[in-house]
Amino acid sequence: MPQSALLVMDVQNIIVERYADQAYVSRLRGAVEAARAADHPVVHVTVGFRPGRAEIHPRNKMFGALAGRASSPQEEWANAIHPDVTPLPLEPVVVKRRVSAFAGSDLDMVLRSQGIGHLVLAGIATSGVVLSTVRQAADLDYGLTVLSDACADADPEVHRVLTERVFPQQAAVTTAHEWVAGLQR
């Protein structure tokens, strides 16, 4: 079985504030702690841009409104990883430039350099980073597991359809509790 890594994606303060509740953060924290205890690498993925946002084109529907704008001091807190899942000093933090964890980032290099062949995905939003990363990671031949309750989305029905109908075509789907129990065996 290839080495597995837990990807904690887009769990930044501003995103948690919009999409998740404390129960979500607690489940995710439990998965992160269990991965660490089992010596599974934890890789944090954030969305971010350079000052001036040179990598954003105005016609990009999701990020275009940010094109050319200077960042503000408040953005430091907003874009920081939520304190309940703060990376440990040697855990990689990968900055992506679009929706998929692989888009504009060095994630694939980080994973392959560590011999990672299986990804356990958690993050916000199910219909954003999780969906895009499942698709791209499958195309890159990674084995995949999605922690359904360690993903969150603004639309519960979209979350349900993705985790019950779409993701199982390319990934194992389980809960954080079931995954943690499997690590502890």
TrEMBL record:
<feature type="domain" description="Isochorismatase-like">
    <location>
        <begin position="4"/>
        <end position="177"/>
    </location>
</feature>
<protein>
    <submittedName>
        <fullName>Cysteine hydrolase</fullName>
        <ecNumber>3.-.-.-</ecNumber>
    </submittedName>
</protein>
<dbReference type="GO" id="GO:0016787">
    <property type="term" value="F:hydrolase activity"/>
</dbReference>
<dbReference type="InterPro" id="IPR000868">
    <property type="entry name" value="Isochorismatase-like_dom"/>
</dbReference>
<keyword id="KW-0378">Hydrolase</keyword>
<dbReference type="InterPro" id="IPR050272">
    <property type="entry name" value="Isochorismatase-like_hydrls"/>
</dbReference>
<dbReference type="Pfam" id="PF00857">
    <property type="entry name" value="Isochorismatase"/>
</dbReference>
<dbReference type="InterPro" id="IPR036380">
    <property type="entry name" value="Isochorismatase-like_sf"/>
</dbReference>
